Each structure stands twice: as C-alpha cells, then as structure tokens.
Amino acid sequence: MTLPKFIIATSDKDHAGVPASRSTAIFRMGMVYQHADLLKAGEQCLGGGYYYIDYTSNTIILDRSSYDFGKPRWHLIDTLVVPSAYQGMRLVYKYDDRYQDDFDVSGNLRIVFQ
After folding, report:
1. Are 91 and 62 in contact (CB under 8 A)?
2. What is the pLDDT of residue 97?
3. Which of 42, 48, 52, 80 would give a disulfide with 35, using CB separation of 3.0 to 4.6 Å?
4. pLDDT band at 20 (very low <50, low <70, confident <90, very high)
5. Are 30 and 41 in contact (CB under 8 A)?
C-alpha cells in the first residue's frame, strides 16, 4: 500500500540555480511504498517521514520518521529546494515526542522553489 511520504535529499547537481553543496537539500514527496522510492540515482538522504496537507491553514505538515533513513536532519541544511507547486504553502515538521517544539521549516530555512 502506498502512503504519503517525504524525503530530504542532497545531490551533486545544481537545482533551481542554487549551487550544489552539503547545506542545500531537495524536498521530495509522493505516494510511495518505501521512502527509498523517492530517492534518485546519485542522491544521499538526510531523512524523511510522512506528510499530510492542511488546506485550512495552507500548511504541509511533516511528521514521524523514515524507516529507511530516520528523522530529517534539519541542522545540516541551510537551503531547501521545494517544488514550485507548493509555493505559498508553509512547511512544518512535528516531532513525535513531547520534548521538542515543532520545527517551522519555512521560517528557519531558506526556501527556493524550482
């Protein structure tokens, strides 16, 4: 059964005019069997999880962790390349513990739409 999953990937290629670097990552989401299905050849994954879209607040809510790659490692990213179809939507990651506050991806990272 396919589920709504996302990954944060790094690549050696430039994306949307943003030079490839270790601090630039690509946001990719889709209905897949495994998180690894979202990874393209030559990419490394910095974690992933599941998503749902809250249309009332215009927010993509990210949560949990990938069984393949673990929780997203946001601290390694400065710039996130996001598909232009999601421009205008806010990205928020909700930790599944009671110790950490939600991570406002849109507010804490530079977002570039491709």
Report:
1. yes
2. 78
3. 48
4. low
5. no
CB neighbours of 8 closer than 8 A, spacing ≥ 6? Answer: 25, 26, 27, 45, 46, 47, 48, 72, 73, 74, 77, 80
| CA gap 74, 84 in Å, rounded | 20
Residue position matching structure tokens 């513990």:
97
Q: Which residues have a Cβ under 8 Å from the Cβ of 57 and sit 6 or more positions away?
A: 90
Q: Are strands 3-10 and 90-94 parallel, antiparallel or unpaired?
A: unpaired
- pLDDT band of residue 9 (cuts 50, 70, 90) is very high
